[in-house]
Amino acid sequence: MGTISLEGLEFFAYHGFYDEEQKIGNKYSVDITVTADLSEPARLDRLSTTVNYGELYTITHEAMQRPARLLEHIAHNIIEEIRKRYPQVETVEVSVSKFNPPIGGVCHRAKITLRG
Questions:
Q1: How many Å apart are CA 23 and CA 48, to the nearest integer?
Q2: Are 109 and 29 spatial neighbours (Cβ–Cβ below 8 Å)?
């Protein structure tokens, strides 16, 4: 078993519980870690035998373009799409962060993490 991770993917998107957040947008960060058997790609040195992190980025980019109310919903959608494309993965962990969330005080970012 091994992991493939993408860390610190940044997007400007229009998510949020409040209508105002979906109008003005915000900066988001996404981290993805996929656990899978990587023995075959390690042995064969072929992209077709592994989880292509370029495709992980594309899946995430597309999910970030669809407005959502909750960070949990975004992470869930990313996990579902990765599992459709790569049914052989054992686990997918996705963290989604919103910078400067509207909580009435100073907060660098709000972050959720889902594993599926």
A1: 40
A2: yes
Look at residue 55 and give its three-state secondary structure: helix
Rg (CA), the chain: 15
Q: Which residues are catalytic?
A: 98
Tens digits of per-residue pLDDT, 25-84? 999 999 999 999 999 999 999 999 999 999 999 999 999 999 999 999 999 999 999 999
The sign of the CA dihedral 101, 107, 109, 115 is negative
The whole-number average pLDDT for the span 77-105 is: 97
Per the listing, tokens 């009435």 go with 104
Residues ≥6 apart with Cβ < 8 Å to 75 = 94, 95, 96, 112, 113, 114
Q: Could you tell me which residues are beta bridge partners of residue 111? A: 97
The candidate with the shortest Cα–Cα distance to 100, out of 24, 31, 33, is 24
Taking 3-state DSSP, the helix, strand and coil percentages for the chain, each rounded to the nearest 5, stand at 35, 35, 30
